[in-house]
Structures are given as structure tokens and as C-alpha cells.
Amino acid sequence: xxxxxxxxxxxxxxxxxxxxxxxxxxxxxxxxxxxxxxxxxxxxxxxxxxxxxxxxxxxxxxxxxxxxxxxxxxxxxxxxxxxxxxxxxxxxxxxxxxxxxxxxxxxxxxxxxxxxxxxxxxxxxxxxxxxxxxxxxxxxxxxxxxxxxxxxxxxxxxxxxxxxxxxxxxxxxxxxxxxxxxxxxxxxxxxxxxxxxxxxxxxxxxxxxxxxxxxxxxxxxxxxxxxxxxxxxxxxxxxxxxxxxxxxxxxxxxxxxxxxxxxxxxxxxxxxxxxxxxxxxxxxxxxxxxxxxxxxxxxxxxxxxxxxxxxxxxxxxxxxxxxxxxxxxxxxxxxxxxxxxxxxxxxxxxxxxxxxxxxxxxxxxxx
Length: 367
What we know:
alpha/beta; Glucose Oxidase, domain 1; 2 domains; 7-stranded mixed barrel; 11 helices; 24% helix; 31% strand; ATP binding; pyrimidine biosynthesis
């Protein structure tokens, strides 16, 4: 693959900060909110996670592409990030089980990226200044032209994106003979969440994000699941209304990530946009019931208001907290069979410390 030619590329941030590097993937221009992931592995799972829709991803691991890509390791049917920013971009891979190189994968998926970037400097800037929009280009080097295009990109704050990545048609997953039936609201669900349910004797019907509660109930599920997904939960009034209706029905309800935030909104606990979010597979979370620390996989730029929860302890019980910054990582609705976590217990490629949460949900359906 030595015949592949790289060209100069530019990364321009909303505050005017500029980084110069080389093209990676398709030659072109792309925009989105810049964020960073601290995971040491699992780049393909990151690329295909629908929760990253509309974002430019900085990967802090120094080598990207060295183990190629494999179709069975995708979390959805296509790449969902808007662009990639990395340091060392490897064309040739050294894993016999891989299907293709990262370059071939990106060209197939039309993804624009930039490499040979000091990602440490980029991450330190985001941690200091906060998440912001950015633009990558390997076809335009005029900064004024790039600034004009970047100015047209909407802020992630207030942006409803879940309906854009949700399934358009209802579908089933797992064995129809399974013991439990789970109605899944898809706001950008990851494949490995479905796998974890199926492995626990659950038959799933996956519904589009804006499906009315009557259609969910008609399937007669034993429990409901609110999935992860991209964007701001605050403008998702349709999903909050559905979550409220599920709570009134009082069947088991489990939410992950965006689903966690929607469950909070359903009991009048507001959400907020974080300074730069949590993204990686090495975030420590304390389980307040057991006192144990779990190493978790995370991907979120919004959180649940700790002040509002503290003022509503009669309605909500905090079950998990982030040990880095004390943010809310899990909660349970008092008097209901409903709970949620901000992080990703299905974690692929790992860690698997929190997969017991799927078992807890199954136990609720047993009862």
C-alpha cells in the first residue's frame, strides 16, 4: 500500500486554533463537534458507534490502523463519526483475521481524516477550552474559507440527532422462543447491547425513536429499554413523553447513556452540556450499593444535574458516581422498576466490569 499518496491537511477549531497534518482516508472536508476518546483499543467500535454521530474524533492512542478492520466488530452498519484526528495512521495492518486496512475502510465509507497531529496538544486544548466545533480539510487550505464554512455548523447544544440515526423500520433480534420480551426504543443503539440482551434469553423488538407508546405496548413486552444515542436529550420531548408513559405502566425499564438522560427528564430532573464530556474505556465509577469501583466504557457529552437530584431524593436514588469528577453515573427511580446508567455496560471491546446490570434488568422482569 506504499503507493497511497497523502496530501497536506488542516484542522481548524472554532476558537481559531489551527493544526497542520496529512490526509487520512478520503480527500475532502468535514465538520462537527471535536471530542476525544482515551481508549487504547477498539477504534472500529468507536467509528461505528451511533452516539458519535456529528462529531470529529480525536483518538489519544498513538497508533491507529495497526490491526486493520473487521466487519463483525462494527457497532452499527456504517461509520458514524464525521471525521478522524490521530497521530500515527497505519496503512498496513498485521492481524490475520482483519478484513481490510483502515484506509480502504475509510475510502469505502467516505470518511475524511487528518493524521500526523500532536493529539496531546489537541486534547489539552479541549480539556482547557471545552468541546467546540471544528473543521478538517485536505482539499482547502485557505483559513478564511474554512472559517466561513465552520461558522455554518450548528452547536451540539440543543441539537436533536437521535431520530437521524434510529432505525426507520421496526425489527426483531434474538430468538422468538426466548423467555423475555423487551421493547427497545432505538435512539442510536449499539449492536453489542442487543447481543447482551439476546445472550440473557431476551427476544427484542427494536422500534424507531419516535414510536408512540401504544405501539410499544401492543407488542406486550416484559420490559422496556431506552438506548444510547447522539445529541442533546433536552429537545427530545417525544422520547420523554414515552418514558413517562412507561413509568406509569410500571414495567421494568432500563436506560443506557442517552436513555439515562431521558429517564431523568421523565421525572423532571434536567440535563446539561458538559465541558468536554467523558469518552474512553478506562473511566472509574463507584457502585454506591457495593462500594466497589468499576472500570467503565463511556461516551457522553451531556449529563444529569446532580443539584436537581440532590433536591429530589424522594424521587431518585443515585446508584453510581464518577470517581474522576463526581458526576452522576447511575440512578434508580424510587417506587418503580426503573434504573439507568450513564456509561456503557455492554462495553466492546471492554472492560466488562458492569455487565451485571443486564442481569439486574432480567431479574426485574422475572419478578
